[in-house]
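W.,

You were right to be curious about this one. When I first looked at the sequence I had no strong expectations either way, so I just let the prediction run and decided to look at it fresh. Below is the sequence, 128 residues in total, followed by the output.
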Amino acid sequence: MPDDSGDEGAPFGIGRVLFGLGMALQASEDFRDMEDTVEYAESAGVPMPELAAPFASGMMLVSGLMVALWKKPKLSTGAVTTFLAVVTLTMHDFWNADEDSRDGERLAFWGNLAMFGGALAFLREAWR
């Protein structure tokens, strides 16, 4: 059974670090151009995008780092899982996208869906 020490075995540990850092680095990209991130959230109909976008990016940054370090694993994996569940369905709804952005949204949807699967696996381990 994993504990907070991070001693779960090499494949789990490597996967966890890569997953967590990937989430954190993706969030850091959002912060590099927050104006575009807010504009994208606004175009998707997110309420109060000027608050929601930085909050969501900050949650993903902190939670990703916490997953990578396996600190507060229940909280951090729960936050990542929640983020991906909400963002995947609301921001990447390719079935509602116009023809010009449908392919990009579909690609983002499937990528997020794959990350969501990984987040669920880490969430299960956190609760063991």
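Here's what jumped out at me. Helices lie at 10-32, 34-43, 49-69, 73-91, 102-126. And, maybe more interesting for your project: DSSP finds five helices and no strands in the chain.

Coffee later to discuss?

I.
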